[in-house]
Amino acid sequence: MNNLILIGMMGCGKSTVGRLAAEKLGLAFADTDERIERASGRTIPEIFASEGEEGFRARELDVSRALAREGGLVIACGGGLPTRAEAIAALKTSGVVFWLNREPALIYDTVSMAHRPLGQGGKEAFLERFRQREPIYRRWADYIIEGHTLAAEAAGRIAALYERECQA
Predict the structure, then answer these.
(1) Is residue 92 packed enough to be buried (19+ CB in 10 Å), middle (13-18) or exposed (0-12)?
(2) Containing H/E element for 98?
(3) For 154, which of 11, 15, 32, 148 could close a Cys bridge (C-beta 3.0–4.6 Å)?
């Protein structure tokens, strides 16, 4: 399989960068959160409110397994997806994983967390969530993209790496 999978903290730009990278590479784009919302007919906050995080993670696992059976995709994963090993393992079997590693304090200071169920605890909680997830992201990443300030820059770096290293 030849999927390109993007992981990283909520708000780090996976969806924006993913769309740009997909366009550059001529691949289709998929966002796990968007797929979950479309399949359930509810928003992520509504799912969290009615089913809790466990219910959401079960839906996320189903979507991950379905996307892993497809090819030619750039997939933007929800920030917590890699915390469930079976979800990210399914995707990793279908392609290469890029971690968008942006400074967590900068993400928190520049991205609205108002509509993100796990972004509600304030800056310290967000930074703690990053500290917990960082080793998980690092474990699953084939490539780490950091030091970028613009989505187009990150997408260009990812597209170039993917074309050079991942296309056989």
Answers:
(1) buried
(2) strand 95-101
(3) 148
